[in-house]
Amino acid sequence: MEAFKIAHVELLRWLVSDYVFDKWEALQVISQVGRCRIGNVVDPNYTVVAKFPKVCLPSKK
To answer: How many whole angstroms separate alpha carbon 17 and alpha carbon 20?
Structure first.
């Protein structure tokens, strides 16, 4: 669960810092079009990738 949280917090930070989203807009869009891939659950070092479709990105700041 911690890996999921970290992946999505980092995705949120990236959208806010590099694109014209404020925090609440980014959270809304991630909840609608964001995707998640679980990479590893066997090893104690769980891995999760949070993804966002490029087609939904506005132009950079």
So the answer is: 8
Kindly give, in sequence order, each residue whose CB lies less than 8 Å from that of residue 51, ignoring residues fewer than 6 positions away.
11, 34, 35, 36, 37
Task: Count the neighbouring beta carbons within 10 Å of the beta carbon of residue 21.
Answer: 20
pLDDT of residue 57: 86
Report the distance separating Cα 55 and Cα 44, nearest Å: 34
Beta strands in 1-61 (DSSP E): 35-40, 47-51
Contact 32, 15 (CB under 8 A): no
Q: Quick one: average pLDDT of 5-17? A: 95
**φ, ψ of residue 13 in degrees (nearest 5):** -60, -40
Mean pLDDT for 21-42 is 91
Domain ranges of the chain: 2-56
